[in-house]
Please model this.
Amino acid sequence: MDPPRNTQGPAPDCLRSGRHHDSLSTTPRPRVPVPELPDIVTYVEALGERIVGARLEDVRLKSPFLLRSFDPPLAGAKGRVVREIDRIGKRIVIGLEDELWLVIHLMIAGRFHWKPPAAKLGSKINLAAFDFAAGTLLLTEAGSKKRASLHVVGARADLDQFRRGGVDVRIATTAEFAERLQVENHTLKRSLTDPRFFDGIGNAYSDEILHAARLSPLKLTSKLTDDEIAGLHTAAVRTLDAWIVRFREQRSGAFPEKVTAFRPEMAVHGRFGQPCPDCGAPVQRIRYADNETNYCARCQTGGRLLADRAMSRLLRDDWPRSLDEL
Ligand SMILES: [Zn+2]
Model:
């Protein structure tokens, strides 16, 4: 990786924190998609079908860095029956009998796989195996940076440390949604993807939600009318629900082995240059750091193109940076 170059005044946070940066290059770097709410909900459903009621016979760690807590010990999880599967934001929570929880954060490249019993941990991408009589839940993480994490928690109240404060838009009332949206004045893209405000919305689904709502990703939250806020809330709920249902239908009982942010059924995300499914105009993009946001100018900005370079400067401190990871 090249060291970041500073060519335009003060560096944005993504450079100061050493994150990789290529806003000036012409080819976007292929990004590993961050699991978002529909992916996480799908994992919760598929895990619930397989391991709730089953005994966790063994936990095998390949990477010692995965485990970020030491008390209570992980060994205490062995032999306990799984009572519940839940999620806190983007974290998956495996609740075991007698007050013990395993909290797994997939970060960017962490993934679950369901394998036959006693699956081997040989490959470098494997982090841990959770063994059940019916199969092995394998946790993997591609790439050299190991960021996925596992915490063992011994009291339900201690799960609160993992809450970022974002609300699930599917549960929030429109008044609650409006309050969160306007707590700080940001671009819509930024506010929707901030885990302090909303739960589980990242780069892909924010693009899809904004397209469904016919709103510009760069519109400031302070400038929204009540009708626009209500429309955005409806679009957010419908978009996320529709994807959760689609994933459920697509896997039809199988374990979700492929998490990807680029799906052919998406309207704009990952579809730069392709026709908008609603109006046929080519999908546009704004690139900043290692992010790209996609939108339809005809549907969302009154036909106005949002230029890359100028917007990068304007957005310097108002762009979702590493928030996807939180
Ligand atoms: Zn369109």
Strands lie at 58-61, 82-88, 91-96, 100-105, 110-115, 126-131, 136-141, 149-153, 284-288, 291-295.
